[in-house]
Design goal:
This protein is an alpha+beta fold. The chain folds into 2 domains: 2-178, Immunoglobulins (Immunoglobulin-like, Sandwich), CATH 2.60.40.10; 187-217. It is built from 3 helices and 12 strands. The strands form 2 sheets. Strands 3, 6, 7, 8, 10, 11 and 12 form a 7-stranded antiparallel sheet that branches. Strand 10 and strand 11 (155-160) form a beta hairpin. Residues 5-22 and 38-44 have low confidence and may be disordered.
Length: 217
């Protein structure tokens, strides 16, 4: 009965977190039932250092960045793929993803569904593809990924930019900031030569006007 209660509580917390962040980002999740996508990796790291681990740990984690409409070096799309291992034959977990700006508090932007780990299998990976829609100012963010026991909600392992440099200083901004393009500016140069030409044209027009008026008389 206690395990059922804890499982329901964990599920309720998942729904609360996902609802709270639904308006800030849109995330697509893939795991071992899908095929990995091959592409150029913007940042990648073997998960050698981890803030905390128990019988579950991160084996590797890859970061992909894309979507820079205004070409300012900050991206609105973040993809994270990781492979985790366990010393147990089988472990159900869920993942939590957070971003920490230079100034401000840590924010959860996605909490995954429950998925399974099978010892050191390379096929029990998880990948998320997130488009940040609003409330993420242009900044260099620190990424943290945590794995929790799906039955109890206990933290099993954690990895972040404090442990791996490739998970820190991630240049991100939301789509609203990225889609804003400032109006083009027109520079007008009025040097000495330009002013002289304008004055000469004005004098010519004045003289012509006077000549026209004299001829009319």
């Amino acid at each position: 009965m206690k395990n059922i209660y804890l499982a329901l509580l964990s599920f309720a917390l998942l729904l609360m977190v996902q609802t709270a962040n639904a308006n800030n980002s849109v995330t697509t999740e893939r795991h071992n039932s899908a095929k990995k996508i091959s592409r150029t990796v913007a940042k990648q790291t073997e998960a050698a250092n981890q803030a905390y681990q128990s019988h579950v740990w991160f084996h590797s984690i890859d970061i992909f960045l894309s979507g820079d409409i205004n070409a300012n070096g900050y991206y609105h799309r973040l993809e994270v793929e990781f492979d985790a291992d366990t010393s147990l034959p089988y472990q159900q977990v869920f993942a939590e993803f957070t971003l920490l700006p230079t100034y401000g508090g840590e924010r959860v932007f996605y909490t995954s569904s429950v998925f399974e780990l099978y010892r050191d299998s390379p096929d029990d990976w998880l990948a998320i593809d997130t488009v940040l829609e609003n409330q993420f100012n242009p900044d260099d963010y620190l990424l943290t990924v945590r794995l929790f026991d799906a039955s109890t909600g206990y933290l099993l392992t954690e990895i972040s930019g404090f442990d791996n440099a490739n998970l820190d200083y991630i240049p991100l901004e939301d789509y609203n900031h990225d889609s804003y393009l400032p109006p083009p500016t027109v520079e007008v140069s009025a040097g000495t030569t330009g002013i002289s030409v304008l004055l000469a044209l004005c004098l010519v027009l004045i003289n012509r006007s006077r000549q026209t008026a004299s001829g009319a008389k």
